[in-house]
């Protein structure tokens, strides 16, 4: 008998006994004649007290069961919330996919988990696993073809929960070297009506099979996972597009710069030849010295361009990590000690990937100008949070210049304009502060979110 039904009956027994006794007294039967009235009243009162105690006990048990269920539900929601937050912290597609299957396995206490990524035709093109060793995975052979229970989740587009895989009519068995599995829970991962993958969990730990609660929890998590997977995919596409566009821009700049240098070298070479033909050695030596200086400058520019091309953000390497590496190599190449300063609140910085690319190039352009024009010994790259904005500052201890009356060898207008356009391309702005003898500061103000990505890069 169900306990919820049994408990009210148990509590009703003393009430029934008391009612019967009171009725018999009222009608004056032989039993009531042999029992004194005070004793009867005491007995009835006792029965009622017992009934009240039993009712209170039953009520407490029910409240306790409700409390435990509510607590478990809250724990599940908390686990789901924590899992969702953990997903949003990742942008690398590979890391997101692995974290999705790891978190799903943890959410429902499964021994094994897998995430099948499907193409537009519905074929499994990748399988990310959790709970299997590399050796176990390698022994399993090629990717599944979408048959059996895996195929059922894929084609039916709904959750499937099975207590025993082998006993289900849709099962086609396991391939050789596949670890034994019994209980099964499969949930599709759908984004805007399109299936992007399927979550497969097997072997519920601590129970014989997955519960309806497990199915509901995993279905909610699959919704969050779909968004995270799509965000990671878009991030990867934007990164690839930004890098490709940036490489084209640098290639054009190198081509234009080399064309100017080669024209300069050609003119100087002709001048050297004419001076030598005229027997004027001293002017020829001056021209040769200028050629040497031009060659050294071009060599430094090419090295910086190569360093810039090798500096890429992504694949698990964030902006600050990449900047640290770049600044170290810049210091080694130029002899200018350059330091990255990120204030404590900057740990929560979250830039759009296109903004990260532009910030990186602004820093590189600013440091190139430091090398060419500042005559500095030290430079600093600083990040400061200011509400919904971040200020990125490149500062040096060089000779500085008068912004109103710049020298011919001061920072070039072209370089400043390029940096300003980069900041504006991601919804920001850029300004320069400098005074003779007090160094120079380039300050880019970049939004931390809600960027308009319709602007072209470059």
Could you walk me through the main structural features you see in this protein, from its secondary elements to its overall organization?
The protein is α+β, with helices and mostly antiparallel strands and 458 residues long. The chain has three domains: 84 residues; 143 residues, Beta-Lactamase, CATH 3.30.450.40; 145 residues, 2-Layer Sandwich (Heat Shock Protein 90). 57% of the residues lie in helices and 16% in strands. α10 packs antiparallel against α11.
Structural class: alpha+beta
The CATH class assignment of the largest domain is: Alpha Beta
Strand content: 15-25%
Q: Please report the distance between the alpha carbons of the first and last residues.
A: 75 Å
Largest sheet: 5 strands, antiparallel
Question: Uncertain spans, ≥5 residues at pLDDT below 50?
Answer: 1-5, 450-458
Q: Strand order, biggest sheet?
A: 2-1-5-4-3
SSE topology:
Layout: H1 3-27, H2 30-34, H3 37-88, H4 93-107, E1 110-118, E2 124-130, H5 134-139, H6 148-156, E3 160-162, E4 184-191, E5 194-204, H7 212-277, H8 281-310, H9 319-334, E6 337-342, H10 353-374, E7 378-386, E8 389-396, H11 413-425, E9 429-434, E10 440-447
Parallel strand pairs: 6-7
Antiparallel strand pairs: 1-2, 1-5, 3-4, 4-5, 7-8, 8-10, 9-10
Helix pairs in contact: 1-3, 3-4, 3-7, 4-7, 7-8, 8-9, 10-11
């Amino acid at each position: 008998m169900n306990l919820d039904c049994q408990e009210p009956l148990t509590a009703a027994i003393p009430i029934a006994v008391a009612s019967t006794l009171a009725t018999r007294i009222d009608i004056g039967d032989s039993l009531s004649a042999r029992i004194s009235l005070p004793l009867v009243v005491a007995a009835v009162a006792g029965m009622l007290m017992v009934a009240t105690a039993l009712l209170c006990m039953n009520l407490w048990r029910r409240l306790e069961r409700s409390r435990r269920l509510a607590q478990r539900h809250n724990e599940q929601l908390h686990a789901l919330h924590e899992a969702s937050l953990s997903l949003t912290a990742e942008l690398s597609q590979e890391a997101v996919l692995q974290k999705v299957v790891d978190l799903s396995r943890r959410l429902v206490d499964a021994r094994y988990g897998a995430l099948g990524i499907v193409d537009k035709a519905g074929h499994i093109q990748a399988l990310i696993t959790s709970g299997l060793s590399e050796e176990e995975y390698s022994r399993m052979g090629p990717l599944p073809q979408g048959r059996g229970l895996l195929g059922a989740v894929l084609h039916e587009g709904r959750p499937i929960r099975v207590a025993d895989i082998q006993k289900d009519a849709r099962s086609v068995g396991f391939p050789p070297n596949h670890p034994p599995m019994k209980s099964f829970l499969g949930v599709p991962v759908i984004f805007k009506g399109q299936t992007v993958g399927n979550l497969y969990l097997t072997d519920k730990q601590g129970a014989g099979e997955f519960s309806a609660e497990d199915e509901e929890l995993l279905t909610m998590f699959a919704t969050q996972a779909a968004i995270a997977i799509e965000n990671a995919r878009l991030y990867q596409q934007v990164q690839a597009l930004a890098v490709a566009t940036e490489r084209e821009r640098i290639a054009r700049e190198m081509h234009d710069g080399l064309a100017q240098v080669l024209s300069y070298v050609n003119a100087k070479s002709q001048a050297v030849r004419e001076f030598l033909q005229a027997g004027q050695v001293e002017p020829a030596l001056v021209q040769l010295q200028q050629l040497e200086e031009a060659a050294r400058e071009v060599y430094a520019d090419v090295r910086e361009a190569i360093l810039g091309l090798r500096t890429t953000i992504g694949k698990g390497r964030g902006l600050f990590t990449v900047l640290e590496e770049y600044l170290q190599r810049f210091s080694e190449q130029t002899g200018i000690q350059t330091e990255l300063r990120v204030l404590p609140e900057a740990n929560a910085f979250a830039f759009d990937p296109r903004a990260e690319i532009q910030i990186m190039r602004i820093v590189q352009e600013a440091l190139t100008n430091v090398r060419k024009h500042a005559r500095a010994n030290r430079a600093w790259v600083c990040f400061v949070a200011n509400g919904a904005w971040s200020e990125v500052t490149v500062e040096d201890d060089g000779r500085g210049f008068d912004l109103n009356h710049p020298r011919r060898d001061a920072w070039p207008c072209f370089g400043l304009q390029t940096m300003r356009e980069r900041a504006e391309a991601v919804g920001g702005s850029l300004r320069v502060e400098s005074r003779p003898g007090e160094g120079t500061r380039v300050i880019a103000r970049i939004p931390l979110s809600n960027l308009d990505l319709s602007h072209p890069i470059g």
